[in-house]
Amino acid sequence: ELAEIIGIQAMYYSVYGLIIDSTLDLPELQTLDGTPKATDVEINLASLPKNGLDHAQQIGPYVWAGQNLLWLRVPGVATYLVSDGRRILIDSVEGIDSDSVRVFLLGSVFGALLLQRGYLVLNGNSIISDDTCLVCAGSPGSGNSSLTAGFLQRGHTVLGDELVALDSQGQISQGVPRIKLWEDMVDHFGLTNRGLHRIRPQLRKFNLPVPHVDQEQTWSVRYICILDDNRLSSNEIGVHPVHGLEKFMLLYQCTCRKEFVAGMHLKRQHLELCSALASLAYMTRITYPRKSFLLDSVLDAILRDARRNTR
After folding, report:
1. Distances from the Cα of 199 to the Cα of 95, 112, 180, 205, 206, angstroms
2. What pTM was computed for the model?
3. Which of 162, 206, 224, 311 is the most exposed place for a label (fewest CB within 10 A)?
4. pLDDT of residue 7
């Protein structure tokens, strides 16, 4: 491997309850002091095939997958190979900035890794409110990160934004301790003078760090809110309890990168996870228009419903 050849020193991090051994600097993650007795995941630099894998199936323009295996190329940035839920190899384009490499690593690539490790991975956020773990899930662009920042501003503990990873018992650990916000929401929350770092040099989207929590601690998810961004012109906010088969279907719809699930032969496992979680947590669907000045009203509706249904 390239990292071994040039003698790059490994660093250790913790995220999603996993110990990461990485030769790539990952400043967004919680750093561990010393050398752990064992690690769960290795991240290394390597030279990778540029045009897919012979022993895998193409499932997208730049994605190849097989049993517990995923090859992903992001043109102009890097090629990634994720295998067996414990190994990530990265072949970055010469001259590319490390921020761009990490954006895709901590997003889609980590999503594939967590799926391989047997987690249900949702697009969404997770917080602790009144000692209760809440998850808000929805399709990308449904306002997840804005809600996460709203929860943080109100003093709630943020466990994750963008990816939520739950095990078969509905348990969750802290994910990447940051929120990704577009510039208009940075202005909305009055964060302009916080010196926030762009997620990529060419994007006006920023990383907002959140406090670390004990990575060995887990929480049971008791409430799941499905975000239904209806983009209506009215200001009406609706809260709709979800029951039966609809719970299962909505969890499936909110799964991160569903094409990865099928391509890595994880469909049966994924359906079992959706079924298990549907029976463990109260679930509701909230409909709302995408207007930033209604954010507080949406937060109020979620928190009020969560308190009512998790006592």
Report:
1. 17, 20, 8, 6, 5
2. 0.92
3. 311
4. 44
Residue with tokens 């709203």: 150
User: Do residues 270 and 253 make contact, with C-beta atoms less than 8 angstroms apart?
Assistant: no
DSSP string, 13-57: EEETTEEEEESS--TTSEEPSS--S--SEEEEE----SS--TTSE
Placement of tokens 């449904």 in the chain = 142
Q: At what angle do helices 144-153 and 295-309 cross, to 10 degrees?
A: 80
Distance between CA atoms of 293 and 171, rounded to whole angstroms? 33
What are the DSSP calls for 114-161, one per residue?
Answer: HHHTT-EEEEEEEEEETTEEEEEE-STTSSHHHHHHHHHHTTPEEEEE
Contact 31, 13 (CB under 8 A): yes
Q: How far apart are CA 83 and CA 219, in angstroms?
A: 27
Per residue in 154-189, is it b (16+ CB within 10 Å) or e — as a string? eebbbbbbbbbbbbeebbbbbbbbbbbbeeebbebb
Task: List the Cα angle 74/80/85 in 5-degree steps.
Answer: 135
138 pLDDT tier (thresholds 50, 70, 90)? confident
- pLDDT, one tens digit per residue, over 238-296 is 899 999 889 988 998 899 889 999 999 999 999 999 988 988 899 999 988 766 568 88
